């Protein structure tokens, strides 16, 4: 049996009911399973024999008809052992789960494959979201695959062209709202409530988060059925840290791992309502009217899933921290140059945050740490170009090249015949 359950009052809503918040109290919903039934189902399943992907975990999903699955082969991303990056961040055992390897270049694909599949099962014809970039790119791709109309609302101002180009080329109707992401999300919520034929797929939709929880499942399987000591990840609208915690706790309930990791959320200094609440010991966030950071993917002042995120951090014994734009860009460059992993600025916040927390003495040197990088660097190439050295121009003459590169000119070799 599957329900949509309110995280505050416990009110249950039907699995097929199109509802984005609790009808009784208005709070967030999450998908709830009967774990005894799920455990019995898994004992008869072949899921362990399937290749690593989101749909390897099909038995953990609220999907009834496998023939309706909309997939672009998402998931199965690399868990990279970073033996050179440890010199930068301090811990001895570090892995990077690189979500930029997903089909549209971000972790959002995990959620969209499930969310759009659910839309198809419900018979919806139009899907919609508000986005700072990655969500719109992902939704547009999966809507195109499913043959659905897609509408995306983006805030005015700077949107990374790598993401905007994706949404446009996949055929989405792109609408720019005057204001920031929070204004765009408010408009989308009103639209989907008024027009029930328009299906909302922001992270307020609990079905989308069911796909994102597979990130946690994969990490455990890639670590040979073990959980890391700590997971560090960027936090914007806060759906991802919430869904990962759900994925880890599911495996723990089912006896698949023997411990749970400490969930550690990193926010940009100019957009950090959750981190500040955690650091100040508050139970609620203080919304920001004008969030600002170079990391556009996490430039959100009123995270919709803040309650879920704070619950995940507190229940896991984790923490949250802020990082500056300068620290983010330094980490982006260091990850690329030490491990060959090119990620967008928001992704690099997890690396910057790990470094900062280690220096503060809040993370132990011997902890097994997984940093999640959420999007590919080509999502926002302008930033990478600005922080990198400019190309050098020389004449097409070997001497000029040697001078530029600091290479000594070899003396001619005289061959003496005998």
Compact summary:
The protein is α/β, with parallel strands linked by helices and 418 residues long. The chain has helices at residues 35-43, 86-89, 108-121, 134-146, 161-169, 181-194, 206-212, 214-222, 239-253, 273-279, 306-316, 325-339, 345-359, 381-387, 398-405, and strands spanning 2-6, 12-14, 29-33, 79-81, 93-98, 126-130, 149-155, 173-177, 198-200, 230-234, 262-268, 319-323, 368-373. It has a domain at 79-105 and 209-386: Rossmann fold.
Number of helices: 15
**Tally of extended strands?**
13
Shape: globular
**CATH topology-level fold name of the domain at 79-105 and 209-386:** Rossmann fold
List the helices and strands in order. Answer: EEEHEHEHEHEHEHEHHEHEHHEHHEHH
Radius of gyration: 23 Å
Distance between the termini: 92 Å
Oligomer designation? single chain
Strand order of the largest sheet: 4-5-13-10-11-12
Helical amount among residues, as a percent range?
A: 25-40%
CATH architecture descriptor text of the domain at 79-105 and 209-386: 3-Layer(aba) Sandwich
The stretches of 5 or more residues where confidence is low (pLDDT under 50) are none
The major sheet is characterized as: 6 strands, mixed
Portion of residues in beta strands equals 15-25%
Mean pLDDT across the residues is 94
Question: How does this structure look, described?
Answer:
Helix 5 (161-169) links the parallel strand 7 and strand 8. It contains 15 helices and 13 strands. 49% of the residues are buried. The protein has helices at 35-43, 86-89, 108-121, 134-146, 161-169, 181-194, 206-212, 214-222, 239-253, 273-279, 306-316, 325-339, 345-359, 381-387, 398-405, and strands spanning 2-6, 12-14, 29-33, 79-81, 93-98, 126-130, 149-155, 173-177, 198-200, 230-234, 262-268, 319-323, 368-373. 38% of the residues lie in helices and 16% in strands. It has 418 residues and is an alpha/beta fold. It has a 6-stranded mixed β-sheet with strand order 4-5-13-10-11-12, with helices on both faces. It has a 4-stranded parallel β-sheet with strand order 8-7-6-9, sandwiched between helices. A 3-stranded antiparallel β-sheet has the order 2-1-3. Helix 3 (108-121) crosses helix 7 (206-212), helix 4 packs parallel to helix 5 (161-169) and helix 7 (206-212) packs across helix 9 (239-253). It has a domain at 79-105 and 209-386: Rossmann fold.
């Amino acid at each position: 049996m599957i329900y949509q359950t309110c995280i505050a009052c416990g009110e249950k809503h039907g699995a097929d009911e199109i509802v984005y918040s609790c009808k009784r109290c208005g709070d967030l919903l999450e998908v709830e399973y009967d774990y005894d039934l799920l455990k019995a189902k898994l004992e008869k399943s072949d899921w362990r024999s399937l290749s690593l992907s989101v749909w390897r975990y099909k038995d953990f999903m609220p999907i009834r008809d496998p023939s309706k699955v909309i997939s672009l082969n998402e998931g199965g991303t690399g868990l990279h052992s970073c033996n050179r990056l440890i010199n930068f961040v301090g811990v001895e055992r570090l892995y990077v789960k690189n979500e930029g390897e997903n089909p549209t270049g971000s972790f959002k694909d995990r959620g969209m494959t499930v969310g759009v599949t659910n839309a198809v099962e419900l018979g919806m014809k139009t899907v919609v979201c508000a986005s700072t970039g990655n969500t719109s790119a992902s939704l547009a791709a999966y809507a195109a695959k499913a043959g659905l109309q897609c509408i995306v609302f983006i805030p005015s101002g700077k949107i990374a062209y790598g993401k905007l180009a994706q949404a446009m080329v996949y055929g989405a109707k792109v609408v720019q709202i005057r204001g920031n992401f929070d204004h765009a999300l408010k408009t989308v919520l009103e639209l989907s409530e008024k027009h029930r034929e328009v299906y909302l797929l922001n992270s307020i939709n609990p079905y989308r988060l069911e796909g994102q929880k597979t990130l946690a499942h994969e990490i455990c399987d890639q670590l040979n059925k073990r959980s890391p000591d700590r997971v560090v990840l960027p936090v914007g609208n806060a759906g991802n840290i919430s869904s990962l915690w759900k994925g880890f706790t599911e495996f723990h309930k089912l006896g698949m791992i023997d411990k749970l990791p400490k969930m550690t959320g990193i926010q940009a200094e100019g957009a950090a309502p959750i981190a500040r609440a955690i650091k100040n010991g508050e139970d609620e966030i203080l919304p920001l009217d004008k969030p600002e950071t170079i990391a556009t993917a996490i430039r959100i002042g009123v995270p919709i899933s803040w309650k879920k995120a704070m619950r995940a951090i507190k229940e896991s014994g984790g923490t949250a921290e802020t990082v500056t734009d300068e620290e983010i860009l330094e980490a982006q460059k260091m990850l690329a140059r030490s491990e060959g992993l090119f990620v967008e600025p928001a992704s690099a916040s997890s690396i910057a945050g790990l470094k900062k927390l280690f220096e503060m003495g809040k993370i132990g040197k011997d902890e097994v740490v997984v940093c999640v990088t959420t999007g590919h660097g080509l999502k926002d190439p302008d930033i990478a170009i600005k922080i990198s050295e400019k190309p050098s121009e020389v004449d097409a003459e070997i001497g000029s090249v040697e001078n530029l590169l600091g290479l000594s000119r070899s003396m001619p070799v005289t061959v003496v015949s005998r």
